[in-house]
Every structure is written in C-alpha cells, then in structure tokens.
Amino acid sequence: MLDSMLGRTYDAQICSVAGTLELVGERWTLLIVRDAFMGARRFEDFQRRTGAARNVLANRLNTLVEDGIFRRVPYQEHPVRYEYRLTEKGLDLWPVIVALVQFGDRHIYPGRAPVLLMHKGCGGAMSDHRMCETCGAKLGPRDVEARRGIGGGMVASATA
Amino acid sequence: MLDSMLGRTYDAQICSVAGTLELVGERWTLLIVRDAFMGARRFEDFQRRTGAARNVLANRLNTLVEDGIFRRVPYQEHPVRYEYRLTEKGLDLWPVIVALVQFGDRHIYPGRAPVLLMHKGCGGAMSDHRMCETCGAKLGPRDVEARRGIGGGMVASATA
C-alpha cells in the first residue's frame, strides 16, 4: 500500500474496516468509485458528476490507481490521454457502495429512492442481501442495472 | 438532517451514497460506528479503541446523536454521564461496516482476517451476502458474533 499525500490515519489499527477506509475513506473517494460503477471513465466525467475540485479529483484518482482500485487505460495517443477503469479489486468495493445506497434509500430518501438497482437477468429488484427478489440469484456488479427512481437521481450506463 | 460543524459537502447531489456519506463520511465516524457494533458505549471506550483526539471524538459523537444514529443514555447521576448506543437507524449501518470488513479481509489481510463474523445460532461463517454459510439464514447485527481471527484483531462483546 503506497502512502497517500495525506498520510495514513488509522495505520496503528489491525482492522479491516480501518484498512479499507485508508484506501477509500478520504473525502470524494467513494463518490468517485460510485461514479465508476455508474459508467464514468474519463476525468471530465468524474469531474462533472462529483463536482470535486480538479486538483482534488486528480489526487484521488492517482491514489486509487496506486492502490490498485483503478487502472489507467489510454484512449487517445496525441497527446496520450487515459481513462480510469475499476480493477477486479475495485469491483470488490461494490458491496460497500450498495450498502451506502441502501442506507440512504431507507433513511434519507424513504419511498423515493433516486436510483433503483435491478437484476439484469429477470428485472427483479435487488434485496438488502444483494440477491434478486424475484429469482433469488446472488447478484454482483455485472448482474445489476441502475434505473432512475422516483427521486430522480442520475443514471448512466449501468455497471463498470 | 442537522448541519454538522464542518457543513455538508455533497448536498447538491441527489444520491443515496452522497447522502449517507454526509452522515458517516467524516474521518473517524465509521470507526466509531464499528466500535459501537463491537460493544463500545462510553466515551472512554471509543477514545481508547479509535485513538481519535478527544475533541474530534466528542464532535463526531454529537453529530451522530444529532443525526439519529446514536442515542445518549444516562448511566450515572452525580454528575450525570451518558453512554452512546446505536439506534435502529444506526443498526442499519451494519451492512456498510460488514462490506468494509469483507473488502479489508480480502485485500488487506488475505488469509489472516483480524476478526471472524460467525452466526450465533449455529456457529457458521457469514458469507459475502451476510448469510450463514452453514444454515443459510439471512443474518443481521443481532445474529452475529465476532471472534478473534488469525490476524489478531480486537474483539469485544459481539454486537450492539
């Protein structure tokens, strides 16, 4: 694990929660990861969606690459430009994002969830346990699509 | 939702992730919630376990009470002193904590998880979907106990 510019805060703790928050606990980072799951890949996409300051966003993206959560993939040659894609490790953050979504749907937007997460295979809703409420399948990030809910949240392409 | 002392950063976004992070995204807050699930109730417990500065910890606890995630319960009368307990809303953060645990177990402590989460009813391990791998029960925070894993993390009383 490479040091971030801010240093690591919770290093003294042998704890998986603290360790994960060292990677994704800085302000903006989980929103950047959220946007990657919603299809964002390029700096401008992340900037527009998060609204984070450009220098902050650049710092966060660099840290996410250093920590193996995003990888840089060139999409243009002259000059070379990169987009950011979730790695397999990054995809493993999906349950964190889903848990944050489901808490917010229940307690911040009750009855008016901004985004609905649905099983691509059969169109069923996703349960609290990340299973399809219709067919019972255990769902991962590639199995789910986001639809605009009654709260009118942003929806882009569905998954990473 | 009451304003925290630092103000809300992500207010412009209609998003359950951003909304939840307004409540629990500040530095230390999710570690405090983690410790509550592990049995911490009193200021000194949280201070010892997190290692957060006392003024920061007091600020975070106040915000968690204002936001309805903790409630204050008097445990002593002269002078009156309070402990902090998770509300039902606070208990709904359990999937967030579990998701952070499971990511850290996989990517930061592979093969040496500091804490093991087990189904109290039958002793089975908890799956990625918060179900018992032995009996198949869907598990909530009151169904699970923490045992010290090979990594030697801290373990207190198991649940809130």
Question: Structural class of the helices, strands and pairings of chain A?
Answer: alpha+beta
> What is the element string of chain A, with H for helices and E for strands?
HHHHEEHHEE
- Report the CATH C-level class of the largest domain in chain A: Mainly Alpha
How would you sum up the global shape of chain A? globular
Q: Radius of gyration of chain A, rounded?
A: 16 Å
Read across the widest sheet of chain A, the strand sequence of neighbours is 1-2
* Topology-level CATH name of the largest domain in chain A: Arc Repressor Mutant, subunit A
What is the count of β-strands of chain A?
4
The percent range for helix content of chain A is 25-40%
pLDDT < 50 runs, ≥5 residues of chain A: 1-7, 156-160
Provide the number of structural domains of chain A: 2
Termini distance of chain A?
24 Å
CATH superfamily of the largest domain in chain A: Winged helix-like DNA-binding domain superfamily/Winged helix DNA-binding domain
Residue fraction in strands of chain A: 15-25%
The averaged pLDDT of chain A comes out at: 89
Main beta sheet of chain A: 2 strands, antiparallel
Oligomeric status: homodimer
Question: What is the level-2 CATH architecture name of the largest domain in chain A?
Answer: Orthogonal Bundle
Largest interface: A-B, 50 and 50 residues
By DSSP (H or I, 4+ residues per run), the number of helices of chain A equals: 6
